[in-house]
Amino acid sequence: MALETGKIRNVGVVGHGGVGKTSLVETLLFTAGAVTRLGKVDDGTTTTDFDPDEIKRKISINTAVAYCDFKGHRVNLIDTPGYGDFIADARAGLRVVEAAVVVVDAVAGVQVQTEKVWKFAAEFELPRAIVVNRLDRERADFFRTLESLTRRLKGRIVPVHIPIGEESGFRGFVDLVTQRATLYADGKAADAAIPADIADRAKEWREKLVEAAAETDDDLLTKYLEEGSLDEPEMIRALRAGITQGKIVPVLCAAASKGIGGQALLELIIHEFPSPADRGEVAGTDLKAKQAGVRGPDPKAPVSALVFKTLSDPHIGKLTLFRVCSGTLRADSTLLNPGRGTRERMGHVSWLQGKTQKNVETLGSGEIGVAQKLKETQTGDTLCDEAQPFELPRITFPEPAINFAIQPKTRGDEDKISNALSRIAEEDPTVHHHFDPETKQLLISGVGSLHVEMTVERMKRKYNVDVSLLPPRIPYKETVKGRAEGQGKYKKQTGGRGQYGDTWLRVEPMTRGGGFEFVDDIFGGAVPRNFIPSVEKGVRDCMKKGILAGYPVVDLRVTLYDGSYHDVDSSDMAFQIAASLGLQKVFMEAHPILLEPVMNVEVTTPAEVAGDIIGDMNSRRGRIVGMEPSGETAVVRASAPMAEMLTYESSLRSMTGGRGGYSMEFSHYEEVPVFLAEKIVKEARADKEKAEKH
Ligand SMILES: Nc1nc2c(ncn2[C@@H]2O[C@H](COP(=O)(O)OP(=O)(O)OP(=O)(O)O)[C@@H](O)[C@H]2O)c(=O)[nH]1
Ligand SMILES: [Mg+2]
Description:
By secondary structure, the protein is an alpha+beta fold.
């Protein structure tokens, strides 16, 4: 029997890195009795940080799922990572829940990623609750944190708790709705009267809560303003409805690692957060009708499910985590993946408690489950009934911002590397890799440097390939600015049959992006027909190898306008060599230059440091194309040479205190300024000499 949709709560736990999300999930599981011991992040014993990389670093890297049953409800918890490099997982996790718990640290208040996950939750119109965690820490301050919440996050944010005791003396909270206290001793909660010393404060905040409840409804507000109060049941009804609809964001107290706050949050989740049934239909594309359509959370509707995470491991194989959006998904059924046009056999399907799977026969609408060893399905895909094809909007991921070149530590490991990277990309869609034929390097791209380093570690641990990371080579190109012409001749007479080829070549520039053009301008057979392709081949090969500094030559027209031959000694090879020698000489006389790739860059930054960003961009030979201030954040658009942008990530981080972000894409090629070109040519020659000595 599938679970009853109205009794399910799917909750995304999100927030800045290290604020205690994983610890809070553990506390919820423990409070509900789903685990018998309260696991600790510092001991590597939590349910949701089970990956060896997570245990080693004591941070969450992957979204993980756990569940508990509380007072007749199924609560599915999605524990998401908080570090910037992995924050795309948090966004993907929020796509499959009905509500979010946003955790903040009681010392630091709102941080960079808090703002980001807040925007994600708003994008998906999710009701939210905020948990002020780590209230037992030194310098923890609930009211200062509250101030930063109301100042920096949009929404009607109002406490439903106030803390009792400070720092290491933090021992519980007042529930402003019931006006009772919950006090903890030895991890056990006990109900108590509000302590006398905070009674006034509790009253003051209770009043603000009533006011917020009244504001959710015009009639209530009129009544409140006239009578100065609301009756208890009325106020509770308004408050609950306000939270469910996202009009009110309640703030709760916690010290997750001490088990404080779990019970109250669970009560809020089951009473105030919406169920998948409340959330209603989901929009998508009806592939049969070839138009927009919807699917309701009805157990009898055709099945549709959204894949929000893929985990792959050489030992357990591939795990596909999905959320059933409509219908009832059965074990051993066959579903369609409409995006890839493939069928997938589901085999066993299970609930997921961290890394532990519990097989079930069916998964109903609104449930979160996992399938093993699906062939082609990847994160973001839809799975659906074959007879009623339907596609949910894909989950999108950010474009990679940083590139490294990868070099195998063991020769001949290249195939193993791309294999491992393809497998990793299945579970992490923010990892990309490709071979750059111009620089002959395998490039890996990711969200940030920590992300790329983690990927390299994962390759080693899971796939046993060891690589080093290098900054990528810049794919410069060579061309000319002027015209020149001259002779290329190759003649060898060493007894027996000799070698003879003689060409006269003219070179001239073409427009940027023009590529290469070979013009045969021979009259009267000065170079015989059958050797003309040899001349062209010699020219092409020489262009590929580069002349000025070993980079490929582009945007060049080469005209063969004269030459001579020898009846016996002329050959294909001789003409190729002659052409190559000729081109090398003529090219250098036609004002050769280097071209460099220029990138379009878009930087998002706190408005107060936008001036620094622009100054820094100028020092990188960048050109500012536009700037849009939008409140507290500004967007700066620029174009800048790739060579200057290799180290941008860390500079941006330090200029913005980690609050900035950027994206970058190739735009076009431009001439390298002379002073830099000289340096690049010199380095290239030195490299070449070194290589020739070895
Ligand atoms: N003092 C104190 N420490 C806590 C509390 N909750 C969590 N911690 C500690 O804070 C650190 C981070 O906790 P996590 O639960 O891993 O935080 P997280 O938000 O899941 O971190 P990421 O997933 O990496 O973003 C760990 O050392 C926890 O033991 C708390 O209430 N009080
Ligand atoms: Mg975590």
